[in-house]
């Protein structure tokens, strides 16, 4: 008797608890489905934040191409430019970005030759010609397009001061007076974060 | 390259490469009304995949057709809303 009782008690109790639990779970699933549906319809827009740290001619392209294309998708886009990446937004310097001939194994000359004076200039000219022949947009065009389509191009305030730049040196529409905290905030809100 | 669509406007991006065909398509679509069809003529072979990806990922547009002929890539994009 004494051994039967606990067994029957457990057997009886289990279906009861399960049914109650099941009901609670069903309600919870319904609740979650409803809130998911609300989230899906409410926040359909993607957001991308790129941190652009490089200011050489070739490295200026990827962030600008991705940013302007993402804007065409209707995404909210922030590009935070810091250190050498700042030169991309600098109105004068952006027109004179250089490609490094040294340290690039794809260059047709060995490093010892690439290190000679004038080689960076030549490599830049070669690349510029390829870009023109290919119908690839200029950096200035991509900046204009990005700004036109609502991309937030940000210039890191600390680097502006470090490089001794003036806020007026940058293209109209560039956001200044922002720092790492702003960049992090955008990254945290983004679906896609890239460091270039 | 005849199409059965009534194209409202033609965008010529011949000679231009990524990302221009997409960026300019988006700009042109923005200027159109719902129901309008934009014809995009490109020489960039990457535009076949790119326009498709863009249309798939963008609300309010529908890619009707893509035609490849004589190194020309023609896309028909409808503005749906």
TrEMBL record, chain A:
Write the lineage as a comma-separated list.
Archaea, Methanobacteriati, Methanobacteriota, Stenosarchaea group, Halobacteria
SUPFAM superfamilies for this protein: DsrEFH-like (SSF75169)
Q: Which organism is it from?
A: Natrialba aegyptia DSM 13077
InterPro entries, sorted: DsrE2-like, DsrEFH-like
TM segment ranges: none
Name of this protein: Peroxiredoxin family protein
From TrEMBL, chain B:
Q: Where is the UPF0033 domain?
A: 11-35
InterPro entries (alphabetical): TusA-like, TusA-like_sf
Family indicated by similarity: Belongs to the sulfur carrier protein TusA family.
Q: Which PANTHER family match?
A: SULFUR CARRIER PROTEIN YEDF-RELATED (PTHR33279)
Q: What is this protein called?
A: Sulfurtransferase TusA family protein
